Amino acid sequence: MSEQWVSTGKRFCEICKVWYGNNRASQDHHERGERHKAMLQQRIRETMQKGKKQELADMKLNGTLAKMGAAAAASMARHGEGVVAGPSLPSTGLR
């Protein structure tokens, strides 16, 4: 008997959304291509922009929460409620 034909299969590039042969030569050819390089740069740019937007949103949220906390503390101080400076020790002390 002679050898049987075996398919080498295919690989999927998540960056370019394309299929190519599952061998080293096809992988190298694809990764050196202009389309892959351009898509990779676009993916990096999008990731950086998304990170910056998330960082700005987090900063805005933290600022809003700080303002809310300050307003709550001021309201509690005006109405004589709560502990503003932190927990206090009992007036008799510990023996």
Write the layout of secondary structure elements.
Layout: E1 10-13, E2 18-21, H1 24-32, H2 34-78
Antiparallel strand pairs: 1-2
Structure description:
This protein is mainly alpha-helical and 95 residues long. 57% of the residues lie in helices and 8% in strands. A two-stranded antiparallel sheet has the order 1-2. Strand 1 (10-13) and strand 2 (18-21) form a beta hairpin. The longest helix is centred in the middle third of the chain and has 45 residues, at 34-78. This is Matrin-type domain-containing protein. Keywords: Metal-binding, Nucleus, Zinc, Zinc-finger. One of its GO terms (cellular component) is precatalytic spliceosome. It is found in: Nucleus.
Strand order of the main beta sheet, please? Answer: 1-2
Assign the structural class, choosing from mainly alpha, mainly beta, alpha/beta, alpha+beta, or little secondary structure: mainly alpha
Contiguous helical run count: 2
Give a short account of the largest sheet: 2 strands, antiparallel
Gyration radius, to the nearest Å? 31 Å
The SSE order reads EEHH
Name the helicity range.
55-70%
Mean pLDDT: 86
Low-pLDDT windows of residues: none
**Which of globular, elongated, flat, extended, rod-shaped describes the shape?**
elongated
Task: Kindly state the number of beta strands.
Answer: 2
Ends distance: 97 Å
Q: What portion of residues belong to β-strands?
A: 5-15%
Keywords: Metal-binding, Nucleus, Zinc, Zinc-finger
Domain Matrin-type: 11-42
GO molecular function: RNA binding; zinc ion binding
Main location: nucleus
